[in-house]
Amino acid sequence: TVTGADRTALIRKGNELFNSGAVEQAKRVFITAQYGDGMNRVGDYYLEQENHLEALRMYWLAPAPDKVEKLIEKITSVVQEWVSEEASE
After folding, report:
1. CA-CA to 51 of 20 to 30 Å: which in 1, 43, 58, 67?
2. How does DSSP assign 33-84, residue by residue?
3. Each residue's pLDDT tens digit, 2-23
4. DSSP state letter for 20
């Protein structure tokens, strides 16, 4: 567990990495620092990239229960569509 000044320095570094486009590195820093806002932003990035499972993971770790619930509903509806399509074939 990282606390105090070290956590602040990690968050600052993670923000710099994220803003420069180094999302994977920023993700590791945010997880280490347990920085929910940063993990949310990484989750939003993954969602934009249509990487739903990694977005869900980030929202779960953040924690962001509203975003988790919304994404689970979306994934569930896609799976239901697949099952429905397969059943009609």
Report:
1. 1
2. HT-HHHHHHHHHHHHHTT-HHHHHHHHHHTT-HHHHHHHHHHHHHHHHHHHH
3. 889 999 999 999 999 999 999 9
4. T
Residue 43 token pair: 């989750």
* Cα 62 to Cα 44: distance, rounded to the nearest angstrom: 12
Looking at this protein, which amino acid is placed at residue 30? Answer: F
Q: What angle do CA 54, 32, 24 make, to 5 degrees?
A: 40
The total number of residues shown for the chain amounts to 89
Among 66, 63, 18, CA closest to 45: 18
Q: What is the pLDDT of residues 28-58, one digit of tens each?
A: 999 999 999 999 999 999 999 999 999 999 9
pTM of the prediction? 0.87
Burial class (CB in 10 A: 0-12, 13-18, 19+), 77: exposed
